[in-house]
Amino acid sequence: MKQALLQLFRSAFGGEPTVIARAPGRIEFIGNHTDYNGGTVLGAAIDRGIWVAARAAQGGRATFVSGHTPARVEIALDSALSKQTGDRAWVNYQLGVWAKLPAFGLRQPAGFEFADVSDLPPGAGLGSSAAIELATGLALTALAGEAPAREILVKLGRKAENEFVGVPCGILDQGVSGFGQRDHLVFIDCRGPVFATVPLPADAHFWVFNTHTKHALVDGLYAARHRECMDAARALGVALLVEATPALLEAKRAALPDVNYRRAKHVIEEIGRVGAVQAALAQGDLAAVGKLLTASHRSSQTLFENSTPELDFLVDRLAAAPHVHGARLTGGGFGGAVMALTDGTFAQADAEQVAAAYAAKFGAQPAILHLKTGPGAELVAG
Ligand code: GLA
Questions:
Q1: Given 38, 117, 176, 353, which is the most exposed site by the fewest CB atoms within 10 A?
Q2: What is the Å distance from ligand 1's center to 360 Cα?
Q3: What is the atom index within ligand 1 of the atom nearest the CA of 41?
Q4: DSSP 153
């Protein structure tokens, strides 16, 4: 990846970058749509991600190139800076990070040249947006001579996404990309937020099936779920759903439209499942963990309604397969990927059987990824 990045940078800008940074994608292990409701969540940084290279430039401009498009985008970094549209929209994550630096008391580089390459499938629900935000945050602060704490970089990425890109996401993706560690899960109590790592049992394996499907309205649907959760919290008389108990929800059921009741039930019970998974992990009981993962998916399917027939099909197949502890959609939903937690004997041939059954029904092959955990975002040079 580093070689591909350097080659891209040199051919675009005719020289060497002064900083290089990388940030991983993530698997949402469990804690679906709990983060912006103040709940808890567990995720894993994976051994794939985004690499960026940059150097300072004159003229108050930023120039972007990327491995995923032949386009070269130039932007004036002035007070008129605004969100880009159409085929320039891919630079919004980087611009958002630059624009939000002062909100954390950090200097902005006045102008820069910037390249990125990725081995993370975009739109798969593997946190590619957060990975570019974290890598950009590391690179731009290094260019400006700043070295912010990890937690600041995480918050910077989320703020860029919330306020510049315009997605009301929580802190899960950025937190996991920032605090990831090989052979560990990242635990986040989103109210702090407080970040911690939890060791992963040695025989835990992740298989991800990317359906390459994405609901055309995915951003709007995510925002709608966010709104429904906030409305439900208001009707229950709490600031965030994390403060509501199952008993409170039942007592006030009549005060909520049924759809908001179901959204709240998913979130409140999901927070309970995160706690149960932590306890099962501490016992090394992966079978119990797997059952909770599949229960999370069933709740997405019926209560939160962020699953799709494609994702449900994969979960049904995987949950019934030998050596699979459990399976669920990973990330925001409405398409994307399913992840399965398996033991070490689940093999490529087993994954291919599931993929073949999927292809027979839906007429397209899902991509199979046997992912390992990996380290969090880091400055590689500079
Ligand atoms: C997306 C968002 C996260 C989180 C998940 C759902 O990945 O970016 O903040 O809300 O969806 O759990």
A1: 353
A2: 30
A3: 12
A4: H
